[in-house]
């Protein structure tokens, strides 16, 4: 099969022949139809996560099951499925025993410890696959398996109450979905961005306000929840100036910078919460909302052969708002 292979840390991605996977016990082989390109693929390429190279990345797999391994009972050939980041925990640690495999330190992960989805075929554990709603296209479904899942999990963790306000800082791959999920849930939603040129499309996504700073956010009434999807924690800390008392800041972007916040947050009794993907029920919900047409992923679509160009655009922050690779 053809796959996009990262040869080494900081290596140049290349599309080449790679061994087609075969389903072992409890596994399925998925013919990949679409595979989202997440900024985390850039972090992994730069060696930020414990990955062995050469490696095929990609952790937003969607496609059709073409092979079933021994012992698989709940999936069949032809099922339309996607796979999340964490496929399995170790099964033995405290968090696995508590049923929270997403917190396992030795998790088996798509595109990290296992071959990823930037390829024509991908192996997955059958119980890690999620059925995709029938009316949802592969192109719309793929970014939900990381970006959509992440922001919906964060919104659920923030536990917003009726009449509360939600702000999103960092209106990119994650942020444009966070904004729409918030609106789909009926909350007044404010976008915090310095990208003036994005304002028109952000308003078209349903934002009630677009402001350029935390101070402007506060002047506009502040926010009870700040969904921080930016890869800059300096931008997150700045936007946090707009918090209302008892507010919650949900950290979802990955940054190497320290997070500097002011004592003001203490006096406002603000809470800072880390969040990634908090359980399969949120993946189910995130897909369902998109299938109902309440959230639309805005994406640039590339063929597998064009993945190097797509990767460069993601790495340079040029993609608005999500890059998706299709295999056909
Ligand atoms: Zn991701
Ligand atoms: Zn474990």
- Give the proportion of residues in helices: 10-25%
Name the overall outline.
Answer: globular
Question: How many helices does DSSP assign?
Answer: 11
Q: How many E-type strands?
A: 17
CATH architectural category of the largest domain: Alpha-Beta Complex
Q: Might you state the CATH topology name of the largest domain?
A: Quinone Oxidoreductase, Chain A, domain 1
- Under CATH, the homologous superfamily of the largest domain reads Medium-chain alcohol dehydrogenases, catalytic domain
Residue fraction in strands:
25-35%
Order of helices and strands: EEEHEEEHEEEHHEHEHEHEHEHEHEHE
Task: Report the biggest beta sheet as strand number plus sense, adding barrel if it closes.
Answer: 7 strands, mixed
* pLDDT < 50 runs, ≥5 residues: none
User: CATH first level of the largest domain: which class?
Assistant: Alpha Beta
End-to-end Cα distance, whole Å, is 13 Å
Number of domains: 2
Give a verbal description of the structure.
By secondary structure, the chain is of the alpha/beta class. The protein has two domains: 2-143 and 295-326, Quinone Oxidoreductase, Chain A, domain 1 (Alpha-Beta Complex), CATH 3.90.180.10; 148-274, 3-Layer(aba) Sandwich (Rossmann fold), CATH 3.40.50. The protein contains eleven helices and 17 strands. The protein has helices spanning 39-45, 94-97, 138-141, 147-158, 175-184, 199-204, 214-219, 233-239, 264-267, 280-291, 307-315; strands spanning 2-5, 14-17, 27-37, 61-68, 80-83, 86-88, 108-109, 121-125, 129-131, 165-169, 188-192, 209-211, 223-228, 243-251, 271-274, 299-303, 322-326. Strands 3, 4, 5, 8, 9, 16 and 17 form a seven-stranded mixed beta sheet that branches. The protein has a six-stranded parallel beta sheet with strand order 12-11-10-13-14-15. Strands 1-2 form a two-stranded antiparallel sheet. The two termini are 13 Å apart. Residues 89-90, 92-93, 95-96, 104, 106 line the site of one zinc ion.
